[in-house]
Amino acid sequence: MCHTLQMPQGIRIEVIDYGAIVRSLHVPDRNGIARDVVLGYDDLEGYESDRAYIGAAIGRYANRIANSRFDLDGTTYQLHANEGVHHLHGGMRGFDKVLWRSRAVEHADSAFLILEHESPDGDEGYPGNLSVQITYGVTASNVFSVDYRARTDRPTPVNLTHHAYFNFAGAGNRDVLDHRLTIHADSFTAIDREMIPTGELVPVGGSPLDFRVGDRIGARIRDGFDQMRIARGYDHNFVLALERRALSPAARVVEPESGIVMEVDTTEPGIQFYSGNFLQSTRLGKLGIRYKPRDGFCLETQHFPDSPNHSQFPSTILRPGEEYRSRTEYRFSVQ
Q1: Known catalytic membership, residue 48
Q2: pLDDT at 244 exceeding the cut of 80
Q3: Active-site residue, 118 included
Q4: Can you name the residues that pair with 297 across neighbouring β-strands?
Q5: Cβ atoms within 10 A of the Cβ of 147, count?
Q6: Which one of 14, 268, 300, 329 is the catalytic residue?
Q7: What is the rounded CA–CA span in Å between residue 320 and residue 46?
Q8: Which domains does the chain have, with CATH numbers?
Q9: What is the pLDDT of residues 133-150, one digit of tens each?
Q10: What is the rounded CA–CA span in Å between residue 291 and residue 332?
Q11: To which H or E segment does residue 253 belong?
C-alpha cells in the first residue's frame, strides 16, 4: 500500500508498507516548483530486486558488523553474512525487505505515518523478539521527521537508520557532485580494506573528509587519500558525539541550481555520508532513469558501525525494560 503525507504548497512524501520505503519526497525549489528529491522506483518489483537499499528503513543493525558475529553477555552470536564474510544493514532479509503494518494520523499543520514490525528471536541471527515502530512525519514548516522506537525481551544490538538517496537537482537529473555539504564533525571512524572500522577515531582536519566549513561533494572526491581509495569515494561514519544526546545539528546540504537547502538534526552520535559510489540500479528508476554511481547521496544518522565489537564505541545494546529511541529531522528551505 502507498500512503501520501502532504502539506498544502509544501512538503509531500509517499511511503509504501514494503520496507517502510519513502518512494518520493517533494519539496519546493526557489521558484516554488515541487521537486522530487529522492531516488526510487515506480513499481514494487523495483524495490524487491533493489540491492542499494533505496529509500528504505534499515535494521536490525545499520552498517557493518565484522565477520557477521559479536559476543554479548558471554555468548557468541553468528549473523547471516551478506557482504562477503560480513553483515551489512540487517542481513539477507533486513527491515528493508519486510512488510510493515501502518496507520496514518493527520493534524492541521502536520501528518504522520506510524509503521510497526515484529522481528522474531533468531531473525538473521539476532537474539530476542524485537518490536519496532517507525513514525514518519511532515509539517507545514517543511520538516520531514523520522522517529524510531524499539523494545526487546532479550539483550540485542539495535541500530536503525533511514537510507534515502538524495538529489536536490531532482532525482536522476544529474549527479550530486555540485551539492555543497557541511558535516558538523571533527573526526570519523577509520576503516580497513574491507570497510570495517579499525576502532580508531581520526581527525578530519587536513583530509578530504573535512566538511566542517562546507565544500562541494565532488571537490576532493578523487583525491588519493587512502581512506577514500578504499571506499571509492565517501562512505564513512562521521563522529557527532560519543554519547546519545538531544536533537542537535549534524549536516547541511545546498544545491546551487535549485536553491534547495536541507539541514539534518539528530539524536544519534554518528552520521554515515555515502556518495553513492556503488549505486547501479538493475531496473529503471522513476521516470525511466537507470541510476548510476553518484546520482544520489545518503546521510544515514546512526550509531557507529561494528559497535558490538568495539567497547570504546557508544553502546548499541538494548536490554529488556529499556526503550530504544532515536529521532532525525530533515528541514527543507531555499536560498
Answers
A1: no
A2: no
A3: no
A4: 166
A5: 17
A6: 300
A7: 37
A8: 2-334 (2.70.98.10)
A9: 999 999 999 999 999 999
A10: 24
A11: strand 248-254
